[in-house]
Specification:
With 145 residues, the chain is of the alpha+beta class. The chain has 6 helices and 5 strands, in the order αααβααββββα. FE2/S2 (inorganic) cluster (FES) binds next to helix 4.
Length: 145
């Protein structure tokens, strides 16, 4: 086995570690930085984008000051999470995957966040909000500037 092949075998682990470090340094993963990372780790740039966009804890765009993550998994879906998603989208004026122009909110859908017994549920930053109803959403959002 050549040195180059051995180095490529470690690339996925090194890549994830490098992406996590870059994310904590910059708050997200700028495109130029991902290109440089691909060169230095000797992996295709598409692999870097693939990993960066796969993990929900990695962001390829600057995130808002507050990150809303609504659970889209089945137990929450069965408790009308779609109505919650629509209500949040209407209140903040953006859809999932977007950030408000003023940088106040980023909005994401996520898999189970471990609050199924109190579905539908969402996280805003590290705060859990459960047993959601459309009526609760407006009040909750007021707490995040
Ligand atoms: S399914 Fe929504 S929190 Fe678990």
């Amino acid at each position: 086995m050549s040195k180059r092949v051995a180095s490529r075998d470690k690339a996925p682990q090194n890549l994830l570690v490098a992406l996590k470090e870059a994310q904590s340094r910059h708050g997200y993963l700028p495109h130029d930085l991902m290109r440089e990372m691909a060169e230095s780790l000797d992996v295709p740039v598409n692999d870097v984008y693939g990993v960066a966009s796969f993990y929900s804890f990695l962001a390829i765009r600057p995130a808002g000051r507050n990150i809303i993550r609504i659970c889209k998994s089945l137990p929450c879906y069965l408790k009308n999470s779609q109505i919650i998603i629509e209500t949040v989208a209407r209140e903040i004026g953006i859809g999932p995957g977007e950030t408000t122009p003023d940088g106040r909110f980023s909005f994401e859908l996520t898999n189970c966040i471990g609050l199924c017994d109190r579905a539908p549920a969402m996280l805003i930053n590290n705060d859990a909000h459960v047993d959601l109803t459309p009526e609760k959403i407006k009040q909750i959002l007021k707490n995040y500037e």
